[in-house]
Amino acid sequence: MEKMTTWILLLFLLVGCSPQGNKQQASESVDNEDTKVEKTAAKGKVKDKLEQQSPNLSKYETVKLEDKQEEFEIEIEYPSFSYAPVDELLSKEMQSQFKNSQKAAKEIIEDIYEDGLGTNLKYSYHVFFEKPVITDDFVSIYFNIRIYMGGASGMSQSYAFNYDLKNQQLLDLEEVLKRRDTNLQIVSKLVADELIHGDQFAEYREDPAPFTYKTSVKGETEPTVENYYAFSLTEDSIILYKQFYSLFPNAAGVVGVEVSWEKIDKATEEKKNDIVYKNDDYHFTLRLPSSWEGRFIVKEGDWNVAAETSYDFQFMHNGKEISNIFSVSVLDTESDGDEEFGPMNFIASQNGKTFVWNSIMEVPPEFWEGGELHELQNEFTHMLNEDLREVIETFTLE
């Protein structure tokens, strides 16, 4: 069983390193041992050289790679556009995937027999693509993968092929966001907002979304390349794909979260207006949302007996100090962050000093129903529950 698990992981790795697959019909047969490679001819003839220089990719063929045997079944489909720069990349990638999946399938079946799991279990690996998005600037193709080895719903994976037609190069997520003058931190926050507030995911959560769901969303949408390895493009948006194991049932499979470029551009512009807090005593900086403008002051405090000092970010309304939002405390010790700090949370350690933070434990009564600031409750809780962790992540030591 240990060997079989290794091969399953290998199949996921094969998917993760790929860019590349939709439908219209085509025809070509290739015999390779027991393997049939079929290509069904669709409309249109091969483009002439002039057309290849200014490609019209609206018509394409579907290439099908198949290996159907008694114990396993492999089927991979991908488009062919009669445009060499794109077709060569897709063909090379898919042929590689096909051969590797054949090898992995045979090893998995051997392990099934060795582990005594019987002969009725059939392994299948299917790759299909959605309709390509084709513009003057790029072609974007999203691929669905279903892997079945028994069980109710099998396993899902995905990958995508994104190609810059103008510059004739593959596009990764970093390059796409760089060209838009934005970054993964901004986009991942918008993905989280969609999961928490978007109508598409309402069936999977309570209304309003509970704290536990929001916490899981933050974990699932950390701004890492691993979380967003598969994405596709439209003219108006980017769609990021992931299986959200802690949010949705396994049967939901890989889910696409679409974020419009309009929202991304707006969030990026707002980020440029962030408030920069610079502490000259201990040489650290924090970035706070522009929406905090006029809503806080920073005071040095001595309430924390375990710290040299604390810097308390206090909520303000109409020039009046209402309550603490959060504090950054400085401890006179070096730390690697492994030990417990009670109600405080580790940020960083440098030059014999450790920086920790804590937030107010509960919403003050002024914001409760019937309180004088009840109309500001949503704003205050948003600062605490939505903004604060992002603020802490911007902590930088000189």
TrEMBL record:
Q: Translocase among the record's keywords? A: no
Domain Deacetylase PdaC span(s) in chain numbering: 66-156
UniProt superkingdom: Bacteria
Record's Pfam families?
A: DUF3298 (PF11738), PdaC (PF13739)
Domain DUF3298 positions: 183-262
Record field: compositional bias (Basic and acidic residues): 33-50
Gene Ontology MF: a single term: endonuclease activity
Alphabetized, the UniProt keywords read: Endonuclease, Hydrolase, Nuclease
Q: Where is this region: Disordered?
A: 23-50
* Protein name (database record): Secreted deoxyriboendonuclease
Quote the gene name from the UniProt entry: yjeA
